[in-house]
Amino acid sequence: MISGKFAITVHILTLLNKFPNDYLSSEFIAGSMNLNPVLVRKEIANLKAHHIVESKEGKNGGTKLAVNASNLSLKEIFEMTFESIGLGFAKNQPNPDCPVGKKINQNLEALYSEMNKNVSAQLENISLEDFSNQF
């Protein structure tokens, strides 16, 4: 299912790219998003696991970008936050005797697959640096 994780992650990375020499605190980042710092820290943990950011603890601690923004595509960021886009399926199992019910899920699955190909193709050509330059 779609969530705000991609938007949160792109916001974090864009901020880090705008302040390349600074370690930004999760409180500072959360303030930019009007979001709870705990949610920011969860996404930072995911970015650390993918070696995209580095963190430092202590009084002057925080997080900073560990990769070159021009080499990181929005597609890669998307794939770090989702495996794919899914708009979901009905909770109840459709009636297999119905002409719509017997094929609805496989047709939705094909639609979602096509959506993911299109999203990936569009995001592949946009680097974090390109996106950050809009601000």
From TrEMBL:
InterPro entries: Tscrpt_reg_Rrf2, WH-like_DNA-bd_sf, WH_DNA-bd_sf. It comes from the Bacteria. This is Rrf2 family transcriptional regulator. It comes from Flavobacterium hungaricum.
